[in-house]
Each structure stands twice: as structure tokens, then as C-alpha cells.
Amino acid sequence: MEASIMYTTSAQPLMEHPERYLLGRTDGDITLETPDQLCLAVQRMAEQGRRSLWVTSRHLDPAIFDTPAVVEPISRLARSSRHADIRILIQDSDPLRGTTHRLIALAQRLSSRIQVRRMSEKDRRSVAEAFLVADRQGLIHQPQALRYQAVVNFHAPRRCKLMGEQFITYWDASEPDPHLRRLHL
């Protein structure tokens, strides 16, 4: 992983013309500062993803992941192909208990298409970042998972390879979260 990521451009163009940012084509880091900007970046990645969407998140922040703008394209991706690979790693599922979260509800309905797991105890203690990798081309990286400051790049295959390898390491050590399973009565 790179020691530091250079934040080069503001999110204003992304907010004004999101259609100009194409997964696998539009290169250049964009700085994100607000929940709305982060939500739009996740939405654009999910809308354009064709094969995979790998997410690590502290607790699936409702301002980002419990919105129709994000959940609907993830649902379309999951239903688009039986080969779609949607994996979500959560560090802390406690805030999700006893709530109705759209993405968790979708994952429960489409459990064969969307996998949700909890990071290992060791990783939960040591990982401070959150990130999303779409089709191994697009990347959203939050160096501090509890802050909205992030960088997005729609064409960063080398960084996606590194982050994807990190994701797989976390995933292999993760476990199903019994609190997020759907109860069948």
C-alpha cells in the first residue's frame, strides 16, 4: 500500500457532473469531504460496477449505505449476474443491531449474491481505514473510517490491486456475524 495518497482535486466537478466520471476510464484523485460527496462517489461506483464491489466499513454509515441512491445500484449489480461478487466487511456491527438498514436487509434477501462478514478481532482492533474497490478499477479510500474525508479515483488499477489484496487478507480472517443473519421463523 502507498504510504500516502495525494489529494489533488476538489469534489466540486464530481458533484456538478457525476456522469463525467467513468469507472475504469477517468483517472485522477478527487478529495471528498462530506457525507453527500462520499455517498455520490459510492453511488457512481456501484452504478458502473459490472463484476465486483468490495467494501470495508466501520459500521455501514447510514448516511452513505442506508440510502436508496446506494442500495438500488448495489441491488442491480447483485441481480445482474450470478457471477457478481459483492462482499462487505464490517468492523463494528453493534450500531446495526435492532435497526432497519436497507443494505443489510438487501444482503439478507440476496444472501447468495451479497456476503456480509465481520472483521476478525485482530483486524477490528488495528484497522482504522475504510475503502471500496469496484471492478478492481475504482477506489474510494477513507484513511480514517470515522471521518468523511476520502479520496476517490475511478481508474486506479494498481492501487486497487494493492487494496484488493488487503481486502482478501481481511476477508480470509473474517467471520459471519450472527447478529446480521436473517432469522427465519
From TrEMBL:
Residues 35-183 form the DUF7931 domain. It holds the Pfam family DUF7931. InterPro entries: DUF7931 (IPR057691). This is DUF7931 domain-containing protein. The lineage of its organism: Bacteria, Pseudomonadati, Pseudomonadota, Gammaproteobacteria, Chromatiales.
